[in-house]
Amino acid sequence: MKPHKSYKSLYKGRRRLEKFLFLCVVIQLILLFLLNATIPIPSGFAGSLLQNLEDDELSIELEGIEFTFPNQLLIRKIEVSKDDAPAIELDGLEVRLSIFDLLWQDIDSIDELRVDGILFHSPDKGPGTLVLGELNSGKDSNGHRHFKGTLSMKRSVLEVIGSADPEYLKSLSRPSTGPRPPFSPSKSIESLIASIDFLANALEGSRPIHLQAFLSLSPNGRIMVSQSQTAFHEKEEGFSREIRGACSFLELSSLEERSAFFKSKVMGLRMATKSVDLNFHDLSLEMPSIAFATLADLPESIGESSFKVGKIEFGNRVQGNLPPFTLHAKSWEGFMKGIFLSDSNRSRIAIAYELNSTLSLEGEAHIFPDLYDLTCDTKKGRLRILGGDECKLQINKNTAGIDDSHPMSFRVTSNRLSVMETPEGAYALEGMIAPDFSILVDSAWCKLGKSEVKGSYHQSWFPHNYRFLLRGTCLPTDINNWLGSWWKSVWTDFVFSDEIPHGDFSIAGNWLNPNVGNRTFGAIRTKKFSYRDFLVSSSRVKVSVDDHQTKVEAIADHEEGRLEGDLSIPRQGRRSDELLSFSLAGRYPLDKGRKVFGQEVESHLSDFNATLVSCEARGTIIKGGLERSGDNNGTFFSIKLSSDGNASFWSIPVNDFYGEIQYGNSTTEGSFPAIGLAKGKASLTFKSKSFSDNQSLDFKFNLEHADRSSMASALSNLSLIDPKDKERIETMAGVKDEAGRVDLSVQAIGPSGDLLQFKGSGRLRLHEKGLSQVNVLGGISKTLNASKLPIPSGSFSFEKLDIPFQIENEQIYSDHILLTGPLSSLQAKGSLNLISEELDLTAKLKLAGNLKIPLIGGIINLADPLSKITEIKISGNWRDPETQLIVNPFK
Questions:
Q1: Of 87-101, 342-356, 626-640, 663-677, which range is least confident?
Q2: Which residue among 242, 290, 747, 880 has the highest number of C-beta atoms inside a 10 angstrom radius?
C-alpha cells in the first residue's frame, strides 16, 4: 500500500465529515432561529384556507395573523358577517397547532386554544347580545380535552369548567344511515343567531342569573349545574316567575352500561300574577336510571322518575298553603304511568294515572277541609275557601265504552262542606272527566243551608266556563259568595220567610271574568216574602242575567190586590250611569210599599199617602240622583195614581184623587185634576225644578164648594201649620154650620225650601152665617156693636167674605177685601206679614139702604152719612188683633 495514496484517501473522508458537520451546524442554527421567529401569514393565504366557508351571504375577515415556530398560531381579530351585517367578532385567538396540521386543516390536532373574547351580534337585540369571555382549552395525556370559560347575556352569567372525552362524545352520536347533507356555514350562523335571540327573549325582564356548571363528559363522569344566591326572576306583563337555589347534576355510567342518574333540587319556585302569588318550596326531581344508547335516545329513555314538592304557599288575593305531595312516574316507548301521593293530616290521596294518547286517572282522595287555612280576598272581605268534614273523591276508568270523549268517571260525597263561606251543606255528585279535565256532573244533589236542589254541572278550564242547571227549593242568598256581588245585589232587599222559594235556574259564566259571559235564566215561585218592607203573600218571578243587565219580571199578590212589573239593574262594570229601571201596574199599597222604587222616588212621594192606589209606573233611575242638575240628570219616571179613599196630601186627608207625577231633566211635574177635599172638589198642578244651588216650585191649587168645618179640620193636619195655630183651626172646625162653604184658589212660584220667598196671587171666598166666629171678624163685630152709632142692632152680622190677595215673599196684600151681611158690608185693604205675624187692615163700613122694610130702610139711610166718616183700624198680631173705631167728622 502506498502512503501517499493512503493519506489522500483519509483526507477526502475527513472533508466529507467536516461538510456534514457544518451542514448540521447550519441546520441547527436555522432551527434555533426559527424557534424564536414569528412569520406573518399573508391575507391571501389565509383567505385560501377559508374560501370553503364563505358564500354569497357569509364573509370572513381576518386581521393580524402570525405563526410562531414551531406550533403557535395567533389571529388578533376575526369578523364574520352575515348579509353585510356583523354576526360574530372574535378577539385574540391563540392555538397550538403544527404547521403541517394547519396546512392540512386538521382542527382535531389542536393541543391548546385560548380566546380573549367572542361577541355574538343579533340584528334584533343589538351588538354584543351574547359574550363568551376568556376561553381556555387544552388536551391532557389521555387525549381528553379540558375547558374553562364564561358566557354572559343581559348581566346573567354562566361559568363553565370541565373536561370531555372526544371519543366518548363521538360514541354518543347516532351513526348516519345515509349521505350527510352538505354543510352550510351561512345556515349554521343563522341558526346560531336564532338560538341567541330565543335565549335573549327568555331572559327579557329577568333579574341577573349567576350559574356555575361543572362538566365531566366521559364514562363515570358527572354534569352539575348550580345557582348562586341570586335568584332567577322572569317577568312578563301580568306574570312573573322566580327560581331560588337551583342545583342539578347528571351522573354518567361506564361506557358499556350507557345509563345515567339525574337529580335536580330547587329551594323555591315562585309564580305570580296580578291576583295570585304561588310559592313552591323544596322541589326535587329524580331520575335514577336513564338508559340510552345515543344522546338522541334520552327523551325516550327517562324510565322511572320521582317529583316531590315540600309545601305550596299562596299569597296575594289567595292565601294559605297546601300539604306536600309526591309524583312517581315510569315511562317507556311513549307511554307513561305513575301515581300521585299525598299523606298528611289534611289529605290522604292516592291517584294513579296513565298517559298514552290521553290521560286517565284512577284512585281515591280524602280531604279534610276544616284543617285547611286557604282564604280568598273578595269584595265581601276575606273569605275562607274550604270548611267542613271529610270530603271523599273516587275516580275510576270509564270502561263501559259509552262515551270515549270522557274516559274517566268520578263520585264526590261530603256530609258537611262549605265553599267560600256559604252555609254548610251535604253534597253527592257523579259525573265524568274529559281528557282536558273538563268536568261533566250529570247527577248532583245538594242540601245547602235552607236550600235543597238537584241538577247538573259542567266546568271547562280553558276558558274557565261553567254552567249550573238547578231545580228545587232554593234560597238565593245561600249562594251569594259563589256568584259574586252582582248576584248578591239582586237579593239584598229581599227578606224570605220560612217557606223557601222553589226555583228552576240555568246559571252560566266564567270564574276568572265574572263581568263577561254570564248568562242566568230562572223562575221562582214564592209564598210570603218582603221586598224593601213591602209584604208579598205569593209571587212568580222570572230572572235573567246577561253581560248588560239583571232583569226581574214579577207578578206579586199582596193583601190588597195584585201587582205586575219588572226591574232592570245594569251589571257592575258597565259604562252606564243607570242604577235601575222599572215598570209597575196594578193595585199598590203606597204607604207600605213606597220604598220599592228606591230612595229618590220615595223622597218625591213623601208628601203623598194612601192605603191603596191604582198605579201605573215606569222609569229609569240614574246614579247620583238629585245631585245632578239639568240635562246631566238622566233620571226619569212617570207614576199615574188614583184612589177612592184613605189618602192625604201634605197630611191633608182627601176622599179621592187621580193624577200623574212625572220627573225628568231635574224637573218634577204633577197634575191632579180631581181631588175630593173637605166635601168639595179640588185640583192641583205643580212643577218643581232643580238647579245647582236651589229648587223652585210653581203650583196652582183650586178648591170649590168645600165644607168650612171639614176644611178647618183638614188644615189642622197640615204639616206646614204652626202648632199654635192648629188649636185655633181645630176650634173653628168644632163650630158646626151646614151652610159654611169655602172656595179657594192659589197660584204661586218660589224656592221650595223657603215658603216665605214665594210670589203669586189667589182668592178666598167664605160663605157662612155667623162669620163673627172668625177671630179677626169677631173683633170687628164686637167693636161696631159697642159703638154709640145710631145703627139698629144686628147690622154688624156678616155672612160672606171675599178676599183677592197677592203674595210677595213674606207679605200677603189685598186691596179689596169685602165682608158682607144682610144689613151692611165692610170694605177693607191691608197686609199680613208672615214672619212678624203682624196684621194691618183699614176698613170702611157701608150700610145696605135698599132694604124692602120701610122703617128700617129709612133708619139706615139716616145713619149712612155717619158711616162715611167712620173707619175701622185692625192691627197687631193676627192671632189676637186690636180693633179700633175711628170717627173723623171732617172727611
A1: 626-640
A2: 290
Quick one: which of 461, 476, 383, 394 has its CA closest to 431?
Answer: 394
Q: Angle of helix 723-734 relative to helix 708-715, nearest 10 degrees?
A: 160
pLDDT band at 862 (very low <50, low <70, confident <90, very high): very low
Q: What is the pLDDT of residue 715?
A: 67
* Closest residue by Cα to residue 430 from 417, 419, 444: 444
pLDDT at 743 over 80: yes
Q: How far apart are the first and last CA of the chain?
A: 207
CA–CA separation, 353 and 366 (whole Å): 17
Q: How far is CA 608 from CA 41, 199, 649, in A?
A: 111, 76, 5
Residue 661 phi/psi, 5-degree rounding, is -120, 130
Cβ-count burial of 295 within 10 angstroms (0-12 exposed, 13-18 middle, 19+ buried)?
exposed
Length reported for the chain: 891
Average pLDDT over residues 198-223: 79
CA distance 734 to 728: 10
Q: Which of 631, 607, 764, 741 is nearest to 686 (CA)?
A: 607
User: Which pLDDT does position 393 carry in this prediction?
Assistant: 92
Q: CA nearest 572: which of 488, 508, 633, 491?
A: 488
Question: Which DSSP symbol is given to 438?
Answer: -
Strand pairing partners for 217? 164
Residue 790: half-sphere exposure toward Cβ, Cα within 13 Å: 10
Q: Copy the grid coordinates of residue 228.
A: 348562586
DSSP string covering 135-167 = EEEEE-TTS-EEEEEEEEETTEEEEEEEEE-HH
Give the mean pLDDT of 247-263: 76
Mark 182-211 as b/e (b = at least 16 C-beta within 10 Å): eeebbeebbeebeebbebbeebeebeebbb
Give the span between the Cα atoms of 477 and 449, in whole angstroms.
10
Q: Which residue has the higher pLDDT, 486 or 313?
A: 313
Phi-psi region of 130 (alpha: psi -120 to 50; beta: other; left: phi over 0): beta
The three three-digit cell numbers of residue 475, written as one number: 234560597
Distance CA 473, CA 453 (A): 6
Q: CA 775 → CA 20, 319, 492, 725, distances in Å? A: 166, 79, 56, 12
Cell for 166?
Answer: 372526544
Instruction: State how beta strands 652-654 and 636-643 pair.
Output: unpaired
Instruction: State the amino acid at position 746 in one-letter form.
Output: V
- Residue 33 pLDDT more than 70? no
Residues 64-79 have pLDDT tens digits of 888 777 777 788 888 8
Q: How far apart are CA 874 and CA 410, in angstroms?
A: 98
Torsion of CA 655, 659, 661, 662, to 10 degrees: 180
pLDDT at 189 over 90: no
- The mean per-residue pLDDT over the stretch 621-639 comes to 69
Query: DSSP strand E in 644-711: where?
Result: 647-649, 652-654, 657-664, 667-677, 680-690, 695-707
Note whether 649 and 643 are within 8 A (CB). Answer: no
Q: Stretch 263-287: mean pLDDT, rounded?
A: 87
Q: b vs e for 394-425, b when ≥16 Cβ sit within 10 Å of the residue's Cβ?
A: bbeebeeeeeeebbbbbebbbeebbbbbbbbb
Specify the 3-state DSSP secondary structure of 115: strand
